[in-house]
Hints:
Elements: E1 5-6, H1 17-23, H2 25-28, H3 39-58, E2 66-69, H4 72-86, E3 93-97, H5 102-113, E4 117-121, H6 131-137, E5 142-146, H7 160-169, E6 173-177, H8 189-192, E7 196-200, E8 211-215, H9 230-233, H10 241-256, H11 258-279, E9 283-285, E10 296-301, H12 306-315, E11 318-319, H13 335-339, H14 344-347, E12 350-354, H15 361-380, H16 383-389
Parallel strand pairs: 1-11, 3-4, 3-5, 5-6, 6-7
Antiparallel strand pairs: 2-8, 7-8, 9-10, 10-12
Helix pairs in contact: 1-10, 3-10, 4-5, 11-15, 12-15
Amino acid sequence: MPRQIYxxxxxxxxxxxxxxxxxxxxxxxxxGNPSSLYTLGQDAKTAIxxxxxxxxxxxxxxxxxxxxxxxxxxxxxxxLKATMEAYSSKGRHLITSSIEHxxxxxxxxxxxxxxxxxxxxxxxxxxxxxxxxxxxxxxPDTVMASIIMANNEIGTIQPIxxxxxxxxxxxxxxxxxxxxxxxxxxxxxxxxxxxxxxxxAHKFHGPKGVGFLYIRKGLKTKNFIHGxxxxxxxRAGTENVPGIVGMASAMDWCMERxxxxxxxxTELRDHLIKRVLTEVEHVRLNGGHEPRLPNNxxxxxxxxxxxxxxxxxxxxxxxxxxxxxxxxGSLDPSHVLLAIGLPHEIAHGSLRLSLGEDTTxxxxxHTVEAIKEVVVMLRRMSPLYEDFLQGKxxxxxxxx
Length: 400
């Protein structure tokens, strides 16, 4: 087995050794329950407070506006379900997009089953929302809007600041899922003007099983988990102290190196995209070139099946994805790729490569060579490609 090249950082990241080291004492030494009054418990409570303050500083939030959760998925569920319920006397209309993460999309679908109305905004062929479409969708009974900041599959970055300003003018609450964006692009809640924001630690080298929801002071939202007074009586359950400490530690590390990480990943991403588009036939870059996450490249290869592509690339040491990790195991094509206008047969041939700060140029070049070899091999076995070569099947028309 060749040395593994990990290019699936959008699914999860390796934990930082420093974050692990910071967490360990809270498993074995400072293991007290933060709700306890004795010193062992208060030490844990102090660690939570310190972590909350550091995280809040990084996104320019008030410390009291950060609420710890078990994941980004939980934060998305809390933001939508509890807020729509809390403001149901004002209205029952929600606006979101057709390219949200499944945590958001499925929460919105659940709300529809409870009698709420949801407007699903379309995106263009490059995966971008039109703020004018957003404003046109607002109604007198619109309670809130939720728009993903940076898409987890195709890397497109939405005009969140502009849409949040539109929402504010109309008295509409605005939430954004920043799970893929945080530590990769600037996230400043005051500058953005958002009312709520979701994040997850394992996307930026923190531990799995912990995230947070930013809730602007004064916003009325119902408690999502009942059974205790934790998180200022809004999210019950004994806090995951080691996880919270690890999340703050990882975020500190990433933000201290923000500029150099961004520049490094952007250089590699652009090199990867240029080589693949230049050296592989019948391939499409999914998502616009800019604004795009610095570490994301998503391609669709015609006449190639995505699962076969992934498994064969792994044999060559390249670990990648066909889209969202939450949708793995599904035979259905990505809803994001369908939303940008790809036909099913091309959407099935997608490959997402998400880089990290440890990714090297040599690894990118190895990956491109592996892609070229695998695509040629798989197309040789494809009857659709054979039909195309014989002029029986035209290449699918997809707007770039």
